[in-house]
Amino acid sequence: MPNHNVRRLAFHEVVFDDGHTLHHAVVEVCGNEVLNSYTFNGEPAMTEWIGGKAFVEKGKIRIHSSFLINISSLM
After folding, report:
1. DSSP strand E in the chain: where?
2. Phi, psi for 50 (deg, rounded to 5)
3. How far apart are CA 24 and CA 18, in angstroms?
4. pLDDT mean over 14-34
5. What CATH architecture applies to the domain 6-63?
6. Are the beta carbons of 65 and 24 closer than 8 angstroms?
7. 14 Cβ contact list (under 8 Å, min separation 6)
8. What is the DSSP letter of 40?
9. Cα three-residue angle 64-69-75, rounded to 5 degrees
10. What is the pLDDT of residues 62-73, one digit of tens each?
11. Which helix (H) or strand (E) holds 73?
């Protein structure tokens, strides 16, 4: 059964395949599909801080973090 939970993940930097980059950004995902992204100030509520860098390619997120994390737990 697929997981349909929407999660809000925060990163230092999010790089998109069209060439633009967001700094201090939240990416809303369902599985690895990107639903929305935006920058933030302060500490956004209900958001998981991942840190590091994320890449969005063809609407899917790929995470590169300086922290050791279990990627499967994010998807």
Report:
1. 6-16, 21-30, 33-39, 48-49, 53-57, 60-64
2. -100, -40
3. 18
4. 96
5. Roll (2.30)
6. no
7. 21, 22, 25, 27, 37, 53, 54, 55, 56
8. -
9. 80
10. 987 665 455 455
11. helix 71-74
